[in-house]
Write a structure and sequence with these properties.
Length: 168
């Protein structure tokens, strides 16, 4: 078993975020894995503004947030409404879904990110390995997969639409 503490992880400053990689492929984390990528990210003015981006399927756990938001979209220039983030939220992004983290003055978003893979995370890598995969899963297919894998008494997760603020 490997035990990692966040203060001991190296910080890598990128445009719009600071990463601390914990688990990943060779040279990608403190612990090497061939199956997953895990780390922390902090989105704030300290790293400058973030551009809308897309990548491999990802799950994020919001560790902390103050006046921080996520904005999903259908393209880099077609971002939807903002959803305010709070500690304890879990966000799931289908493969190649556009999104951007934003914050008000003095705000930030602090997350733990998880990818179920160590390669083909960036869009160019995905397109090379899986020609033709360009659209993220839609709400209907997400709802269908939930209903076929959960009992009727278990409510589905809230799906935040790219076009509207919230869908029950």
């Amino acid at each position: 078993m490997d035990v990692l503490k966040r203060p001991d992880l190296d910080r890598v400053k990128l445009s719009g975020r600071t990463l601390q990689k914990a688990v990943g492929g060779p040279d990608e984390g403190r612990v090497t894995s061939s199956k997953m990528t895990v780390g922390f990210a902090r989105y704030s003015a300290e790293s400058g503004p973030m551009e809308p981006h897309q990548h491999a399927e990802e799950t994020i756990y919001v560790v902390d947030a103050r006046d921080g938001y996520i904005r999903p979209g259908t393209a880099a220039n077609q971002m939807g409404d903002r959803l305010q983030l709070a500690a304890g939220m879990i966000l799931h992004f289908p493969e190649l879904e556009w999104h951007v983290f934003e914050w008000d003055e003095g705000g930030y978003v602090d997350v733990l990110f998880i990818y179920g893979q160590v390669d083909n995370i960036r869009p160019d890598q995905i397109k090379l390995s899986e020609a033709g995969v360009t659209e993220p899963a839609d709400a209907a297919s997400c709802a269908l997969s939930w209903t076929t894998s959960h009992s009727a008494s278990t409510p589905p997760p809230q799906r935040f639409s790219k076009q509207s603020p919230r869908q029950p």
